[in-house]
Amino acid sequence: MTAWDGDKLITALVDHGINCEDINYVISTHGHSDHIGCNYLFPKATHIVGFCISQKDRYFHHDFKSGKEYRINDKITIIPTPGHTLQDVTVIINSGKGTIAITGDLFEREDDLSNCNIWKSAGSDSEELQVMNRLKILQLADYIIPGHGAMFKTDKYK
Question: What is the pLDDT of residues 6-16, one digit of tens each?
Fold first, then answer.
């Protein structure tokens, strides 16, 4: 969300019985302003923004560039999926309902599977990598939460 969406985000968290102090990790799939604007609301959290990991003024090295995954716990893993930007990551969640991929703008919305102009017009630092990683996520996930649309099932795209 953008820096102007803070109140909306706080309200949504409260509606679920959560406050900003409860958040341990903030994961932004990439560093564009419409995806990192409310990160300031979570000063206690570890922040993962694309390939960068930090907490307050400490930065941590992780080799996303070589394809290495970052595991938060046995259900949540961050994997590198460059394309939209060269430092994109996807959050993989293994839930009781299947594997969910939070992809950011690797997928703009479900419609971009039938119309590639949608994701291409949003910008792509590497269309070749983006196509490769989109296919990878489609095979890996049961559900995708794209950067600008509703969650969708992947079964009809496999």
Answer: 999 999 999 99
32-60: average pLDDT: 95
| Residue 1, pLDDT score | 83
* DSSP code of residue 128: H
pLDDT above 90: residue 158: no
User: pTM score, two decimals?
Assistant: 0.94
Where in the chain are the domains? Answer: 3-157
Query: How far is the C-alpha of 30 from the C-alpha of 50, rounded, in Å?
Result: 4
Amino acid in position 79:
I
- Residue 133: burial class (beta carbons within 10 Å; 0-12, 13-18, 19+): buried
Name beta bridge partners: 79: 90
Distance, CA of 34 to CA of 138 (rounded, Å) = 24
3-157 is classed CATH 2.60.40.10: no
